[in-house]
Design a protein that fits this description.
Elements (H helix, E strand, L loop, with lengths): L11 H22 L1 H4 L1 H14 L10 H29 L8 H17 L11 H15 L2 H9 L3 H18 L12 H19 L4 H34 L25
Helix pairs in contact: 1-3, 1-10, 3-9, 4-5, 4-8, 5-7, 6-8
Length: about 270
């Protein structure tokens, strides 16, 4: 039984899975033991959790293919900006003809974009979706600075960067990592986690001495949270092992976790 001092944060798809499992468990327990035995306050807390889980359905595309395609579209834009910058820098990196002032400006612009936005390449695009979003958020902040904006414009990439930014914002909203500025301060996923914590606290408070019933009421969360923790630990362990061996190759694609699957492999495309 978890102490619940540090609850595992779940993605939208995992949160929906917990909600659906808990609905089935609660229905069965009420049928077997009655509402009073399960406890009206526990039932009320569960209903609040169910209600807060509904908005999450709009954050998660209906199929894995939909999520993969959104991720791929974002990756293609970010990779294209890097590729164009690299090609221009490579083209200008010659000693046969003296560059004009405009050509030299483009060369410097390409160098600035690569140094500022792609100092560590594009390997972050193969991270888990939540990790990739965090890295891309930093990328977009750098891309919004005056110097980089000017460089992007000099390279003729303003339109492509604008598309990348729009896709990134949609990415965050669909995956449940962010909300639009017009939304309430707490995102739907944050509200769901708050309701989950309130539900777990109510279950422990009302069934502290009834371990059997308490465990059944918390099992839907425990099972999925345990899977997420195991997958995360395995990913971290595999990367640590690679670093210890001095492996310069790129890290393998992480094991998919519901709601936070990795980008598609070459075969998927």
């Amino acid at each position: 039984m978890s102490t619940y001092l540090m609850m595992t944060k779940l993605g939208p798809a995992d949160a929906i899975a917990v909600t659906e499992k808990l609905k089935a468990v609660l229905k069965r327990l009420v049928a077997e033991h009655g509402e009073q035995a399960v406890n009206p306050e526990v039932i009320a807390a569960a209903k609040t959790l169910f209600k807060d889980g509904e908005p999450l359905r709009g954050l998660v595309p209906s199929t894995y293919r939909d999520r993969r395609d959104l991720d791929r579209a974002t990756d293609v834009c970010i990779t294209a900006i890097a590729s164009v910058s690299e090609l221009k820098l490579s083209a200008y990196d010659q000693k046969h003809v003296e560059l004009t002032e405009r050509q030299e400006q483009e060369r410097k612009a390409a160098q600035l974009v690569l140094d500022t936005l792609y100092g560590e390449g594009t390997s972050f695009l193969r991270d888990r979706w939540s990790a990739q979003f965090g890295t891309t958020e930093g990328y977009m902040q750098k891309a919004g600075t005056k110097a980089v904006t000017k460089a992007i414009d000099a390279l003729g990439l303003t339109g492509l960067m604008g598309l990348a930014r729009e896709l990134h914002e949609l990415y965050g909203q669909r995956m449940g990592f962010t909300t639009s500025e017009t939304a309430s301060e707490a995102s739907p996923l944050m509200r769901w986690h708050e309701s989950l914590e309130a539900y777990i606290g109510t279950v422990i408070g009302k069934h502290g001495r009834n371990r059997s019933l308490r465990d059944e009421l918390t099992a839907p969360y425990e099972e999925i949270a345990a899977t997420v923790r195991a997958m995360t630990a395995a990913k971290v362990g595999s990367r640590s092992t690679g670093e210890a061996k001095g492996d310069a190759a790129e890290a393998p694609a992480p094991t998919p976790v519901a709601g936070d699957e990795p980008p598609p492999t070459r075969e998927d495309r």
